[in-house]
Specification:
The structure holds 2 protein chains of 2 kinds. By secondary structure, chain A is α+β, with helices and mostly antiparallel strands. Chain A has a single domain, classed as Sufe protein. Chain: A (Alpha-Beta Complex). Chain A is 40% helix and 18% strand. Chain A has a 3-stranded antiparallel sheet with strand order 1-2-3, covered by helices on one side. In chain A, β2 and β3 form a beta hairpin. Chain B is of the alpha/beta class. Chain B folds into 2 domains: 138 residues, Aspartate Aminotransferase, domain 1, CATH 3.90.1150.10; 256 residues, Aspartate Aminotransferase, domain 2 (3-Layer(aba) Sandwich). Chain B contains 15 helices and 17 strands. The chains are: A alpha+beta, B alpha/beta.
Protein backbone atom coordinates (compact mmCIF):
# COMPACT_ATOMS: atom_id res chain seq x y z
CA UNK A 1 0.00 0.00 0.00
CA UNK A 2 1.27 3.50 -0.71
CA UNK A 3 2.51 5.18 2.39
CA UNK A 4 1.25 8.58 1.32
CA UNK A 5 -1.65 9.93 -0.71
CA UNK A 6 -0.91 11.19 -4.20
CA UNK A 7 -2.38 14.65 -4.51
CA UNK A 8 -4.07 15.74 -7.73
CA UNK A 9 -1.15 18.13 -8.28
CA UNK A 10 1.34 15.25 -8.07
CA UNK A 11 -0.80 13.17 -10.43
CA UNK A 12 -0.84 16.00 -12.94
CA UNK A 13 2.92 16.31 -12.72
CA UNK A 14 3.45 12.60 -13.28
CA UNK A 15 1.23 12.66 -16.40
CA UNK A 16 2.88 15.80 -17.76
CA UNK A 17 6.33 14.41 -17.07
CA UNK A 18 5.71 11.23 -19.04
CA UNK A 19 4.04 13.27 -21.78
CA UNK A 20 6.80 15.85 -22.18
CA UNK A 21 9.68 13.40 -21.72
CA UNK A 22 8.52 9.88 -22.45
CA UNK A 23 11.15 7.29 -21.50
CA UNK A 24 10.13 4.50 -23.85
CA UNK A 25 8.94 6.32 -26.98
CA UNK A 26 11.12 4.83 -29.70
CA UNK A 27 11.21 2.24 -32.42
CA UNK A 28 13.35 -0.79 -31.57
CA UNK A 29 16.86 -0.66 -33.01
CA UNK A 30 17.58 -4.33 -32.30
CA UNK A 31 15.84 -7.52 -33.40
CA UNK A 32 13.68 -9.73 -31.27
CA UNK A 33 10.67 -7.50 -30.70
CA UNK A 34 7.07 -8.35 -31.42
CA UNK A 35 4.76 -5.44 -32.17
CA UNK A 36 1.14 -4.52 -32.48
CA UNK A 37 -0.56 -1.47 -33.92
CA UNK A 38 -2.96 0.51 -31.75
CA UNK A 39 -5.30 3.09 -33.19
CA UNK A 40 -8.39 4.93 -32.18
CA UNK A 41 -11.47 5.95 -34.09
CA UNK A 42 -12.32 8.81 -31.76
CA UNK A 43 -8.86 10.18 -31.07
CA UNK A 44 -5.81 10.83 -33.19
CA UNK A 45 -3.86 8.08 -31.41
CA UNK A 46 -2.01 5.90 -33.87
CA UNK A 47 1.04 4.06 -32.55
CA UNK A 48 2.88 0.76 -32.25
CA UNK A 49 3.69 -1.09 -29.05
CA UNK A 50 6.84 -3.24 -29.02
CA UNK A 51 7.71 -6.05 -26.66
CA UNK A 52 10.88 -8.07 -26.17
CA UNK A 53 10.79 -11.12 -24.00
CA UNK A 54 13.34 -13.47 -22.51
CA UNK A 55 12.35 -16.59 -20.55
CA UNK A 56 8.89 -15.25 -19.82
CA UNK A 57 10.26 -11.94 -18.49
CA UNK A 58 9.78 -8.60 -20.24
CA UNK A 59 13.25 -7.54 -21.27
CA UNK A 60 12.13 -4.34 -23.00
CA UNK A 61 8.94 -2.49 -23.90
CA UNK A 62 8.69 0.44 -26.29
CA UNK A 63 6.04 2.38 -28.12
CA UNK A 64 6.11 4.99 -30.89
CA UNK A 65 3.67 7.01 -32.92
CA UNK A 66 1.20 9.85 -32.60
CA UNK A 67 -0.69 10.13 -29.33
CA UNK A 68 -2.45 12.58 -27.05
CA UNK A 69 -1.29 13.37 -23.55
CA UNK A 70 -3.32 10.66 -21.89
CA UNK A 71 -2.32 7.86 -24.24
CA UNK A 72 1.31 8.99 -24.30
CA UNK A 73 1.62 9.08 -20.54
CA UNK A 74 -0.36 5.91 -19.91
CA UNK A 75 1.53 3.86 -22.51
CA UNK A 76 4.87 5.20 -21.31
CA UNK A 77 4.07 4.36 -17.70
CA UNK A 78 2.94 0.92 -18.84
CA UNK A 79 6.30 0.29 -20.53
CA UNK A 80 8.07 1.51 -17.38
CA UNK A 81 6.16 -0.89 -15.23
CA UNK A 82 6.25 -4.10 -17.30
CA UNK A 83 10.00 -4.12 -17.88
CA UNK A 84 11.52 -6.73 -15.61
CA UNK A 85 8.17 -8.29 -14.76
CA UNK A 86 7.04 -11.76 -15.76
CA UNK A 87 4.17 -12.05 -18.24
CA UNK A 88 2.01 -13.34 -15.44
CA UNK A 89 2.71 -10.31 -13.24
CA UNK A 90 2.33 -7.97 -16.17
CA UNK A 91 -0.99 -9.41 -17.21
CA UNK A 92 -2.27 -9.17 -13.66
CA UNK A 93 -1.21 -5.53 -13.45
CA UNK A 94 -2.83 -4.71 -16.81
CA UNK A 95 -6.04 -6.37 -15.65
CA UNK A 96 -6.07 -4.26 -12.48
CA UNK A 97 -5.43 -1.09 -14.47
CA UNK A 98 -8.30 -1.81 -16.86
CA UNK A 99 -10.55 -2.62 -13.89
CA UNK A 100 -9.66 0.73 -12.31
CA UNK A 101 -10.45 2.66 -15.47
CA UNK A 102 -13.73 0.79 -15.88
CA UNK A 103 -14.52 1.63 -12.25
CA UNK A 104 -14.62 -2.01 -11.17
CA UNK A 105 -12.89 -3.60 -8.17
CA UNK A 106 -9.11 -3.51 -8.56
CA UNK A 107 -5.92 -4.27 -6.69
CA UNK A 108 -4.22 -0.93 -6.15
CA UNK A 109 -1.03 -2.47 -4.75
CA UNK A 110 0.35 -3.42 -8.19
CA UNK A 111 -0.46 -0.21 -10.06
CA UNK A 112 2.29 2.11 -8.84
CA UNK A 113 2.38 5.34 -10.93
CA UNK A 114 -0.45 4.13 -13.17
CA UNK A 115 -2.82 5.11 -10.37
CA UNK A 116 -2.67 8.68 -11.75
CA UNK A 117 -5.28 7.68 -14.35
CA UNK A 118 -7.85 6.94 -11.69
CA UNK A 119 -10.06 9.84 -12.84
CA UNK A 120 -10.03 9.12 -16.56
CA UNK A 121 -13.67 8.08 -16.34
CA UNK A 122 -14.57 11.74 -15.78
CA UNK A 123 -13.73 12.31 -19.43
CA UNK A 124 -15.43 9.34 -21.03
CA UNK A 125 -14.17 10.22 -24.50
CA UNK A 126 -10.60 9.68 -23.30
CA UNK A 127 -11.05 6.27 -21.64
CA UNK A 128 -9.92 4.57 -24.81
CA UNK A 129 -6.81 6.81 -24.86
CA UNK A 130 -5.85 5.70 -21.37
CA UNK A 131 -6.32 2.01 -22.09
CA UNK A 132 -5.29 1.43 -25.70
CA UNK A 133 -1.57 0.95 -24.99
CA UNK A 134 -2.45 -1.43 -22.16
CA UNK A 135 -4.85 -3.55 -24.19
CA UNK A 136 -2.31 -3.63 -27.02
CA UNK A 137 0.33 -4.92 -24.61
CA UNK A 138 -2.11 -7.47 -23.25
CA UNK A 139 -2.76 -8.70 -26.80
CA UNK A 140 0.98 -9.08 -27.38
CA UNK A 141 1.26 -11.15 -24.23
CA UNK A 142 -1.83 -13.25 -24.98
CA UNK A 143 -0.17 -14.40 -28.18
CA UNK A 144 2.60 -15.94 -26.11
CA UNK B 1 -35.40 41.15 -38.30
CA UNK B 2 -32.85 38.80 -36.73
CA UNK B 3 -33.81 38.18 -33.11
CA UNK B 4 -31.26 35.83 -31.56
CA UNK B 5 -33.14 35.40 -28.27
CA UNK B 6 -36.29 34.43 -30.15
CA UNK B 7 -34.34 32.05 -32.37
CA UNK B 8 -32.68 30.37 -29.39
CA UNK B 9 -36.05 29.90 -27.74
CA UNK B 10 -37.15 27.81 -30.73
CA UNK B 11 -34.51 25.14 -29.97
CA UNK B 12 -35.11 22.70 -27.09
CA UNK B 13 -31.38 21.93 -26.91
CA UNK B 14 -30.72 25.62 -26.31
CA UNK B 15 -33.58 26.48 -23.98
CA UNK B 16 -33.78 23.34 -21.83
CA UNK B 17 -30.73 24.07 -19.72
CA UNK B 18 -28.79 21.10 -21.08
CA UNK B 19 -25.52 20.59 -19.24
CA UNK B 20 -22.27 18.83 -20.01
CA UNK B 21 -19.81 18.08 -17.18
CA UNK B 22 -22.09 20.07 -14.88
CA UNK B 23 -21.71 23.24 -16.99
CA UNK B 24 -24.20 24.87 -19.33
CA UNK B 25 -23.73 23.34 -22.78
CA UNK B 26 -21.90 25.51 -25.32
CA UNK B 27 -22.45 23.90 -28.69
CA UNK B 28 -19.66 24.81 -31.12
CA UNK B 29 -19.71 21.67 -33.26
CA UNK B 30 -22.21 22.81 -35.85
CA UNK B 31 -20.07 21.70 -38.77
CA UNK B 32 -20.61 18.22 -37.40
CA UNK B 33 -24.32 18.45 -36.71
CA UNK B 34 -26.91 21.02 -35.69
CA UNK B 35 -29.76 21.39 -33.22
CA UNK B 36 -33.39 21.10 -34.32
CA UNK B 37 -36.08 23.71 -33.79
CA UNK B 38 -39.52 22.71 -32.48
CA UNK B 39 -41.02 22.88 -35.95
CA UNK B 40 -38.72 20.11 -37.22
CA UNK B 41 -39.30 17.89 -34.21
CA UNK B 42 -43.06 18.47 -34.54
CA UNK B 43 -43.00 17.58 -38.24
CA UNK B 44 -41.25 14.30 -37.50
CA UNK B 45 -43.59 13.52 -34.59
CA UNK B 46 -46.67 14.43 -36.58
CA UNK B 47 -45.79 11.83 -39.17
CA UNK B 48 -46.04 9.17 -36.47
CA UNK B 49 -49.01 10.59 -34.56
CA UNK B 50 -51.25 11.77 -37.41
CA UNK B 51 -49.91 10.89 -40.85
CA UNK B 52 -48.35 7.42 -40.73
CA UNK B 53 -48.53 5.76 -44.10
CA UNK B 54 -46.15 4.60 -46.74
CA UNK B 55 -45.86 6.69 -49.89
CA UNK B 56 -46.90 5.64 -53.40
CA UNK B 57 -47.97 2.18 -52.23
CA UNK B 58 -51.76 2.36 -51.82
CA UNK B 59 -55.02 3.87 -52.92
CA UNK B 60 -56.32 5.32 -49.69
CA UNK B 61 -56.31 8.90 -48.49
CA UNK B 62 -53.48 8.72 -45.95
CA UNK B 63 -51.16 7.33 -48.58
CA UNK B 64 -52.27 9.79 -51.20
CA UNK B 65 -51.72 12.63 -48.74
CA UNK B 66 -48.24 11.31 -48.05
CA UNK B 67 -47.47 11.40 -51.76
CA UNK B 68 -48.56 15.02 -51.78
CA UNK B 69 -46.51 15.83 -48.68
CA UNK B 70 -43.37 14.32 -50.19
CA UNK B 71 -43.95 16.16 -53.46
CA UNK B 72 -44.38 19.36 -51.50
CA UNK B 73 -41.16 18.69 -49.56
CA UNK B 74 -39.31 18.04 -52.82
CA UNK B 75 -40.60 21.33 -54.22
CA UNK B 76 -39.59 23.19 -51.06
CA UNK B 77 -36.05 21.83 -51.26
CA UNK B 78 -35.89 22.53 -55.01
CA UNK B 79 -36.97 26.15 -54.52
CA UNK B 80 -34.49 26.53 -51.68
CA UNK B 81 -31.54 25.87 -54.03
CA UNK B 82 -33.02 27.18 -57.29
CA UNK B 83 -33.61 23.77 -58.86
CA UNK B 84 -36.61 21.89 -60.25
CA UNK B 85 -38.41 19.24 -58.20
CA UNK B 86 -37.40 16.49 -60.60
CA UNK B 87 -33.74 17.33 -59.96
CA UNK B 88 -33.99 16.64 -56.21
CA UNK B 89 -33.15 13.11 -55.05
CA UNK B 90 -33.67 12.27 -51.39
CA UNK B 91 -30.72 10.29 -50.03
CA UNK B 92 -29.39 9.40 -46.59
CA UNK B 93 -27.05 12.39 -46.65
CA UNK B 94 -24.10 13.96 -48.45
CA UNK B 95 -22.11 10.75 -48.26
CA UNK B 96 -24.77 8.72 -50.05
CA UNK B 97 -25.30 11.54 -52.55
CA UNK B 98 -21.61 11.66 -53.47
CA UNK B 99 -21.43 7.88 -53.69
CA UNK B 100 -24.45 7.89 -55.98
CA UNK B 101 -22.73 10.32 -58.33
CA UNK B 102 -19.55 8.25 -58.23
CA UNK B 103 -21.11 4.81 -58.73
CA UNK B 104 -24.21 5.79 -60.67
CA UNK B 105 -22.74 8.40 -62.98
CA UNK B 106 -18.95 8.47 -62.97
CA UNK B 107 -18.42 4.70 -63.02
CA UNK B 108 -20.43 4.54 -66.28
CA UNK B 109 -18.92 7.62 -67.90
CA UNK B 110 -15.20 7.45 -67.13
CA UNK B 111 -12.58 5.39 -68.85
CA UNK B 112 -8.88 4.74 -68.52
CA UNK B 113 -6.91 7.93 -68.95
CA UNK B 114 -9.70 10.23 -67.78
CA UNK B 115 -9.01 12.45 -64.80
CA UNK B 116 -10.89 13.30 -61.62
CA UNK B 117 -9.70 16.49 -59.91
CA UNK B 118 -10.04 16.93 -56.15
CA UNK B 119 -8.30 19.02 -53.51
CA UNK B 120 -6.42 18.05 -50.36
CA UNK B 121 -9.04 19.89 -48.30
CA UNK B 122 -11.85 17.47 -49.18
CA UNK B 123 -13.77 15.43 -46.65
CA UNK B 124 -13.35 11.66 -46.91
CA UNK B 125 -16.79 11.34 -48.50
CA UNK B 126 -15.64 13.45 -51.43
CA UNK B 127 -12.36 11.55 -51.79
CA UNK B 128 -12.91 7.86 -51.18
CA UNK B 129 -15.77 7.31 -53.68
CA UNK B 130 -13.51 8.81 -56.33
CA UNK B 131 -10.63 6.52 -55.36
CA UNK B 132 -13.02 3.61 -55.88
CA UNK B 133 -14.25 4.88 -59.22
CA UNK B 134 -10.67 5.48 -60.35
CA UNK B 135 -9.85 1.89 -59.51
CA UNK B 136 -12.94 0.62 -61.32
CA UNK B 137 -12.46 2.64 -64.49
CA UNK B 138 -8.71 3.24 -64.75
CA UNK B 139 -9.26 6.97 -64.40
CA UNK B 140 -6.69 8.99 -62.48
CA UNK B 141 -7.24 11.10 -59.38
CA UNK B 142 -5.25 14.34 -59.34
CA UNK B 143 -5.22 17.20 -56.86
CA UNK B 144 -5.70 20.87 -57.57
CA UNK B 145 -3.07 22.78 -55.57
CA UNK B 146 -4.37 25.01 -52.79
CA UNK B 147 -2.93 28.43 -52.04
CA UNK B 148 -0.66 28.57 -49.02
CA UNK B 149 -3.65 29.60 -46.90
CA UNK B 150 -5.51 26.48 -48.06
CA UNK B 151 -7.83 28.18 -50.50
CA UNK B 152 -9.02 26.72 -53.82
CA UNK B 153 -8.80 29.33 -56.58
CA UNK B 154 -10.10 29.31 -60.13
CA UNK B 155 -6.57 30.13 -61.33
CA UNK B 156 -5.27 26.90 -59.81
CA UNK B 157 -8.07 24.89 -61.37
CA UNK B 158 -7.34 26.50 -64.74
CA UNK B 159 -3.67 25.52 -64.39
CA UNK B 160 -4.44 21.92 -63.39
CA UNK B 161 -7.35 20.96 -65.63
CA UNK B 162 -6.55 19.14 -68.85
CA UNK B 163 -8.52 17.86 -71.80
CA UNK B 164 -8.66 14.50 -69.99
CA UNK B 165 -10.42 15.93 -66.94
CA UNK B 166 -13.99 14.69 -66.81
CA UNK B 167 -14.94 15.43 -63.21
CA UNK B 168 -13.99 18.21 -60.83
CA UNK B 169 -15.27 17.38 -57.33
CA UNK B 170 -14.84 20.01 -54.63
CA UNK B 171 -16.43 21.27 -51.42
CA UNK B 172 -18.30 24.54 -51.88
CA UNK B 173 -17.17 25.31 -48.32
CA UNK B 174 -14.37 23.17 -46.90
CA UNK B 175 -15.06 21.48 -43.59
CA UNK B 176 -11.79 22.21 -41.82
CA UNK B 177 -10.73 25.63 -43.07
CA UNK B 178 -14.13 26.95 -44.10
CA UNK B 179 -13.09 28.74 -47.27
CA UNK B 180 -15.88 29.49 -49.71
CA UNK B 181 -14.91 28.11 -53.12
CA UNK B 182 -15.52 30.31 -56.18
CA UNK B 183 -18.01 27.74 -57.47
CA UNK B 184 -19.32 29.81 -60.36
CA UNK B 185 -15.86 30.41 -61.83
CA UNK B 186 -14.85 26.79 -61.19
CA UNK B 187 -17.95 25.59 -63.03
CA UNK B 188 -17.15 27.81 -66.01
CA UNK B 189 -13.61 26.49 -66.22
CA UNK B 190 -14.76 22.90 -65.83
CA UNK B 191 -17.39 23.28 -68.55
CA UNK B 192 -15.04 25.05 -70.94
CA UNK B 193 -12.80 21.99 -70.66
CA UNK B 194 -15.59 19.46 -71.08
CA UNK B 195 -15.75 18.41 -67.43
CA UNK B 196 -18.60 18.49 -64.92
CA UNK B 197 -18.46 20.14 -61.51
CA UNK B 198 -19.55 18.08 -58.50
CA UNK B 199 -20.09 20.15 -55.36
CA UNK B 200 -20.02 18.84 -51.83
CA UNK B 201 -22.45 21.29 -50.29
CA UNK B 202 -22.55 19.78 -46.79
CA UNK B 203 -20.91 22.87 -45.27
CA UNK B 204 -22.32 25.43 -47.70
CA UNK B 205 -26.05 24.84 -48.21
CA UNK B 206 -26.86 25.18 -44.47
CA UNK B 207 -25.05 28.53 -44.27
CA UNK B 208 -25.15 30.34 -47.61
CA UNK B 209 -27.87 31.18 -50.07
CA UNK B 210 -27.51 28.60 -52.83
CA UNK B 211 -28.71 28.90 -56.41
CA UNK B 212 -27.57 25.96 -58.49
CA UNK B 213 -28.45 27.66 -61.77
CA UNK B 214 -26.42 30.73 -60.91
CA UNK B 215 -23.50 28.63 -59.60
CA UNK B 216 -23.61 26.33 -62.60
CA UNK B 217 -22.67 23.25 -60.61
CA UNK B 218 -23.78 19.98 -62.18
CA UNK B 219 -24.27 17.96 -59.02
CA UNK B 220 -24.67 19.17 -55.44
CA UNK B 221 -24.76 16.99 -52.33
CA UNK B 222 -25.93 18.08 -48.89
CA UNK B 223 -27.15 16.71 -45.56
CA UNK B 224 -30.31 17.50 -43.61
CA UNK B 225 -28.84 17.19 -40.13
CA UNK B 226 -26.30 19.96 -40.72
CA UNK B 227 -29.14 22.38 -41.47
CA UNK B 228 -31.50 21.80 -38.54
CA UNK B 229 -33.09 18.75 -40.17
CA UNK B 230 -33.14 15.13 -39.00
CA UNK B 231 -30.22 12.75 -39.38
CA UNK B 232 -30.41 10.15 -42.13
CA UNK B 233 -31.87 12.45 -44.75
CA UNK B 234 -29.97 14.37 -47.40
CA UNK B 235 -30.21 15.56 -50.94
CA UNK B 236 -28.58 15.00 -54.26
CA UNK B 237 -29.26 17.75 -56.74
CA UNK B 238 -28.37 16.81 -60.29
CA UNK B 239 -28.86 18.66 -63.54
CA UNK B 240 -31.76 16.74 -65.04
CA UNK B 241 -29.98 15.63 -68.21
CA UNK B 242 -27.16 14.23 -66.07
CA UNK B 243 -29.54 12.49 -63.67
CA UNK B 244 -31.13 10.82 -66.71
CA UNK B 245 -27.71 9.41 -67.56
CA UNK B 246 -27.18 8.23 -63.98
CA UNK B 247 -27.77 4.61 -63.01
CA UNK B 248 -29.41 3.54 -59.78
CA UNK B 249 -27.01 1.99 -57.34
CA UNK B 250 -29.77 0.90 -55.04
CA UNK B 251 -32.42 -1.18 -56.75
CA UNK B 252 -35.68 -2.61 -55.50
CA UNK B 253 -39.23 -1.46 -54.91
CA UNK B 254 -40.30 2.04 -55.81
CA UNK B 255 -37.68 2.59 -58.51
CA UNK B 256 -38.81 0.17 -61.25
CA UNK B 257 -41.71 0.22 -63.69
CA UNK B 258 -41.61 -3.50 -64.42
CA UNK B 259 -39.20 -6.42 -64.53
CA UNK B 260 -39.33 -9.80 -66.20
CA UNK B 261 -37.92 -13.28 -65.81
CA UNK B 262 -35.38 -12.59 -68.52
CA UNK B 263 -33.82 -10.08 -66.13
CA UNK B 264 -34.94 -7.01 -68.03
CA UNK B 265 -35.89 -4.09 -65.83
CA UNK B 266 -37.48 -0.80 -66.78
CA UNK B 267 -36.67 1.87 -64.23
CA UNK B 268 -38.43 5.09 -63.39
CA UNK B 269 -37.16 8.43 -64.52
CA UNK B 270 -35.26 10.51 -61.94
CA UNK B 271 -35.64 11.22 -59.12
CA UNK B 272 -37.69 8.11 -58.26
CA UNK B 273 -35.09 5.92 -59.96
CA UNK B 274 -32.77 6.65 -57.05
CA UNK B 275 -35.17 6.22 -54.15
CA UNK B 276 -35.53 2.45 -53.92
CA UNK B 277 -37.31 1.04 -50.91
CA UNK B 278 -39.51 2.94 -48.50
CA UNK B 279 -38.22 6.48 -48.35
CA UNK B 280 -37.07 8.09 -45.12
CA UNK B 281 -40.47 9.73 -44.78
CA UNK B 282 -40.01 11.29 -41.34
CA UNK B 283 -36.67 12.59 -42.58
CA UNK B 284 -38.18 14.10 -45.71
CA UNK B 285 -40.94 15.83 -43.73
CA UNK B 286 -38.44 16.99 -41.12
CA UNK B 287 -36.13 18.32 -43.81
CA UNK B 288 -38.96 20.32 -45.32
CA UNK B 289 -39.69 21.86 -41.93
CA UNK B 290 -35.97 22.67 -41.56
CA UNK B 291 -35.86 24.43 -44.91
CA UNK B 292 -39.00 26.38 -44.00
CA UNK B 293 -37.38 27.37 -40.73
CA UNK B 294 -34.11 28.50 -42.35
CA UNK B 295 -36.09 30.55 -44.86
CA UNK B 296 -38.10 32.17 -42.08
CA UNK B 297 -34.82 33.25 -40.46
CA UNK B 298 -33.46 34.26 -43.86
CA UNK B 299 -30.30 32.88 -45.46
CA UNK B 300 -28.84 36.40 -45.76
CA UNK B 301 -29.32 36.91 -42.02
CA UNK B 302 -27.75 33.55 -41.30
CA UNK B 303 -24.73 34.34 -43.43
CA UNK B 304 -24.31 37.80 -41.92
CA UNK B 305 -24.56 36.59 -38.31
CA UNK B 306 -22.08 33.78 -38.88
CA UNK B 307 -19.56 36.08 -40.55
CA UNK B 308 -19.80 38.45 -37.63
CA UNK B 309 -19.31 35.57 -35.15
CA UNK B 310 -16.33 34.31 -37.11
CA UNK B 311 -14.60 37.69 -36.93
CA UNK B 312 -15.50 37.97 -33.26
CA UNK B 313 -14.15 34.50 -32.48
CA UNK B 314 -10.88 35.13 -34.31
CA UNK B 315 -10.43 38.38 -32.40
CA UNK B 316 -11.29 36.80 -29.04
CA UNK B 317 -9.05 33.78 -29.57
CA UNK B 318 -6.19 35.99 -30.72
CA UNK B 319 -6.59 38.10 -27.59
CA UNK B 320 -5.91 35.04 -25.43
CA UNK B 321 -2.39 34.93 -26.88
CA UNK B 322 -2.68 31.14 -26.62
CA UNK B 323 -4.27 30.09 -29.90
CA UNK B 324 -2.77 29.34 -33.26
CA UNK B 325 -5.58 29.88 -35.76
CA UNK B 326 -5.18 28.11 -39.11
CA UNK B 327 -7.93 29.97 -40.97
CA UNK B 328 -8.33 33.51 -39.61
CA UNK B 329 -9.32 34.82 -43.03
CA UNK B 330 -11.81 32.20 -44.19
CA UNK B 331 -15.32 33.50 -44.65
CA UNK B 332 -17.51 30.89 -43.03
CA UNK B 333 -18.16 30.19 -39.36
CA UNK B 334 -15.46 27.56 -38.90
CA UNK B 335 -12.49 28.39 -36.68
CA UNK B 336 -9.72 25.81 -36.71
CA UNK B 337 -6.97 26.22 -34.14
CA UNK B 338 -4.65 24.69 -31.64
CA UNK B 339 -3.88 25.89 -28.15
CA UNK B 340 -0.13 26.53 -27.92
CA UNK B 341 1.61 23.54 -26.41
CA UNK B 342 -1.57 21.51 -25.99
CA UNK B 343 -2.40 18.53 -28.17
CA UNK B 344 -5.72 19.00 -30.00
CA UNK B 345 -7.45 16.08 -28.33
CA UNK B 346 -6.36 17.28 -24.91
CA UNK B 347 -7.68 20.72 -25.75
CA UNK B 348 -11.04 19.24 -26.70
CA UNK B 349 -11.13 17.37 -23.39
CA UNK B 350 -10.40 20.62 -21.55
CA UNK B 351 -13.23 22.28 -23.45
CA UNK B 352 -15.51 19.33 -22.63
CA UNK B 353 -14.74 19.81 -18.94
CA UNK B 354 -16.06 23.36 -19.32
CA UNK B 355 -19.21 22.27 -21.13
CA UNK B 356 -17.94 23.31 -24.56
CA UNK B 357 -18.43 20.95 -27.50
CA UNK B 358 -15.73 21.30 -30.16
CA UNK B 359 -14.39 18.73 -32.54
CA UNK B 360 -10.73 17.71 -32.47
CA UNK B 361 -8.70 15.53 -34.74
CA UNK B 362 -8.54 15.44 -38.50
CA UNK B 363 -12.20 16.13 -39.17
CA UNK B 364 -12.37 13.42 -41.84
CA UNK B 365 -10.04 15.47 -44.05
CA UNK B 366 -7.01 13.29 -43.57
CA UNK B 367 -5.08 14.68 -46.53
CA UNK B 368 -5.12 18.19 -45.10
CA UNK B 369 -2.86 17.67 -42.10
CA UNK B 370 0.28 17.41 -44.16
CA UNK B 371 -0.75 20.67 -45.71
CA UNK B 372 -1.32 22.32 -42.32
CA UNK B 373 1.82 20.77 -40.86
CA UNK B 374 0.02 19.36 -37.85
CA UNK B 375 -1.46 16.01 -36.93
CA UNK B 376 -4.64 17.36 -35.42
CA UNK B 377 -6.59 20.54 -34.83
CA UNK B 378 -9.51 21.78 -32.77
CA UNK B 379 -12.50 23.02 -34.76
CA UNK B 380 -15.11 25.36 -33.40
CA UNK B 381 -18.02 25.93 -35.75
CA UNK B 382 -20.95 28.28 -35.31
CA UNK B 383 -24.48 28.41 -36.65
CA UNK B 384 -27.03 31.21 -36.72
CA UNK B 385 -28.20 30.38 -33.19
CA UNK B 386 -24.69 30.72 -31.72
CA UNK B 387 -24.21 33.69 -29.38
CA UNK B 388 -21.22 35.90 -28.65
CA UNK B 389 -21.42 34.70 -25.04
CA UNK B 390 -20.67 31.19 -26.28
CA UNK B 391 -17.60 32.48 -28.12
CA UNK B 392 -16.56 34.26 -24.93
CA UNK B 393 -16.82 30.94 -23.06
CA UNK B 394 -14.58 29.33 -25.67
CA UNK B 395 -11.99 32.10 -25.46
CA UNK B 396 -12.02 31.94 -21.67
CA UNK B 397 -11.43 28.18 -21.74
CA UNK B 398 -8.62 28.55 -24.29
CA UNK B 399 -6.95 31.16 -22.07
CA UNK B 400 -6.72 28.41 -19.41
CA UNK B 401 -5.29 25.96 -21.94
CA UNK B 402 -2.17 25.19 -19.94
CA UNK B 403 -4.31 23.69 -17.20
CA UNK B 404 -5.82 21.09 -19.51
CA UNK B 405 -5.20 18.20 -17.13
CA UNK B 406 -7.65 19.84 -14.71
CA UNK B 407 -10.29 18.07 -16.77
CA UNK B 408 -9.35 14.86 -14.94
CA UNK B 409 -9.11 16.20 -11.40
Amino acid sequence: MPTFELTPMMMREIIMDHYSSPRHKADPVKDGYVSVHAESTNCIDDFHVYLKEKDGIVEDALWNGVACTISTASTDILCDQVIGKSFKESKYMIEQFLNMIEEKEYDESVLDEAIVFINTGKQAARIHCATMGWTAMKDLMEDK
Amino acid sequence: MFDLAKIRSDFPMLRNGIQMQGKPLVWLDNASTTFKPDSVIEAVTKYYTEQTSNAHRGDYDLCHNMDLAIAEARKTVADFIGAESREIVFTAGSTESLNLIAYGYAAYHLQAGDEILLTEAEHASNVLPWFQVAEMTGAKVRFIPLTKEGRLTSENLAKTITKNTKIVAIAAVTNVLGYIAPVKELAEIAHKNGAILVCDGAQSVPHLKTDVRDLGCDFLAFSGHKMCGPTGIGVLYGRYDLLKETHAFLTGGGMNVRFKKDCTVDVYEPPMRFEAGTQNIEGILGLKAAVDYLQSVGMENIERHEKELKRYAVQKLQETGMAHIYNPDSESGIITFNIDGVFAQDAATLLNSKGIACRSGQHCAKLLNDFLGTVATVRASVYFYTSKEEIDALADAVSHGKEFLDAYF
